[in-house]
Amino acid sequence: MDLINKIEDQFINILSQNIGISEINAGYLYALIALLVIIGVGWIANFIVKRFVLGLVRSVIKKSKTSIGKLLIEQKFFHRLSHLAPAFVISSLSGIVFLSYSFLSEMVEIAVNLYLVVIALSVIDSLINAVYKLSENSKISSKLPLKGICQAIKILINGTGIIFILSILLDKSPLYFFSGLGALTAVLLLVFKDVILGLVAGVQLTTNNMVRKGDWIEMPKYGADGDVIDVSLTTVKVQNWDKTVSTIPAHALVSDAFKNWRGMSESGGRRIKRSIHLDLSSLRFLKESEIEELEKIELLKGYFKGKRSDIGEKGLAVEKKGLVAPLLNGRNLTNAGSFRAYCLEYLRANPAIHKEGMTFLVRQLAPTDKGLPIEIYVFVN
Fold this sequence. Notes:
Shape: elongated
Distance between the termini: 82 Å
Strand order of the largest sheet: 4-3-2-1-5
Low-confidence stretches: none
Strand content: 5-15%
Structural class: alpha+beta
Number of strands: 8
């Protein structure tokens, strides 16, 4: 400190005696030059930390091959953390150099404190981003809206940072501003309405497991029909099947109705519900010769064998006894019923169709103006 005082006195004496500058102006000039020197030393400290210390940290992390370390480098966590070096250098040197300049010392201290708050906010932001990236591909990301949670945490932290900045600038305790938030509740609710609604909706969506990333949802009100690609604090993005993207407010998923097809995906089956319409004028009884030909079809052998025992040979003798006799003699076989049996056996033999645990149905419906519907109601696996 004595050395600093001697340098200051010699500098002022040289300027005042040799150049003719007044001692007051010489003192101001000394303070300005000293400030520039301190800033220069801080810049050098920052350069050294970034060039050597940060380089060493990067090489160690690359050798360790840890995913969290690589993510911290990608999100510039250590790069932002290195800005602490010039802040500490400037703060330490200004406390020594500017002992005679209390006002300038206070200004430098305020600037350094503001700088530290900004650095802290940026470091925390990069840390949150790294944690989010790390958990983005994990199982928990499919169950929790991590992006919305991270955004909410960032808002709280940045809000706290703004309060600390105001407390430094106005020389007030942070508690003073926290206590004043109660009076600004109405304004805050108005400004952060979407954020608050989105946060509450995100909690409800998570708690009730209503929607998550990767779900196929359908919401005609917003023109959405596709996969959820992003769940943030205020919005949910859906990539439609035509590759367009629909943006839905998060709270709309709680207040409005939408269809989530996740249950179908998790069940491992997708429904097929289609009808084959038969021309009503083509419906008739099968002749015995036709039955004999149809029995050659592998899928229908069991069907006709069972029908022969149920109906009997008389019910099949349409060619021998005419068309009226079967009508009077009871049960008979029709081409529509046999076609329904073929569809049933064909689907039963198909390995891509669920046979158990899900609806498996082929049936005749009431005739319409389009014909006789043969409805197929099955689930593919």
